[in-house]
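FW: tagging you since you asked about this chain on Friday. Here's the raw sequence from the shared folder, copied in full. Didn't touch anything.
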Amino acid sequence: MRRSLVALALSLLPACPSATGPALPPNVGQTHRAERAARAAAPDTAAEPVAVGTTVWAEHRSTGFFFHAVVVERREDEHRVVFADGGAEWVPADGLRPDSLREDARVGVRPDYGARFSQAVVARRVADVVYVRFGSGDEEWAGLAQLRFEPGDPGTPQRGDAPFERSAAEPLGPGAGVLVNYQDAGLWFAGTVTARGDDGRLHVVYLDSTAEWTDPRLVAPDALGPGAVVHVRRRWDPADWVRGRVRERLGHALSVELDDGGLAWSSMFRVRLPTPLPQGQTDATGAQPPAAQDRQAPQSALDAATGSTRIAMGDRVSPPISTTLHP
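HL: got it, structure written out here
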């Protein structure tokens, strides 16, 4: 009887610490953010390889943050993606999410390089741009290159989600991808039409979130494809534009043969086009834009230069491109 009481008393004593310390729950010391990430890291659906050409949200350098991207190459479970801002890396299947970002998703928004991400909620998505509301009450348009999210953020893409449905748009109607002769300076940049005014002007949001109302004669459908001559911005400060020719296009990603040698993947975010438009393209009315009508031989300063395939960005135009937006 006495032996049974001793055994019972011992069983009620706290366990003695081992040489490595007490056995603690596995989540001791984790922050709430880490717990949320851990829950999000175990999705209900298994990760499957994604086809080349698929638009996705990809985890950047295993940071836990996802950015908009397109798959340009695949080797078994590894996917080479080109992010919307032009960066590229290999990402495993479990680091990809479908392009299912919709209204009410909570995302981080950064206006330009060096700025901090601020939390906002997506109020509306039109193709490759979103209208967001910040906690301060401010509202603005943002390109997808300016967004990031964590898997546990409410309303953000999860495995198994259906992709965002892109409604068919008129050539220059809301939702259409376009090229704009920015500030009528003879250099064309990509954007998305979000509205058409009663006066016929178009509201365009560029890939870096710059927005403006512009004359439709300065706008053309985005039909950029293989063979088009483009200028790729390889360095930001000082600006370094290198001329090349598009070899392949997958969504916003471009494979470009550069005039100074080499083949590189970039994105529409880093690209501008010289006048005239590629492959003889005109605006939707069939007329050349007003700036080109008065020129005997429309061409950009870069195409007019001899003996060099590079040119620093001129003072006559401030293109709507800021810088790479990854952390």
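FW: The first strand starts at residue 55 and ends at 59.
HL: agreed, and Residues 8-43, 282-327 have pLDDT under 50 and may be disordered.
FW: great, closing this out.
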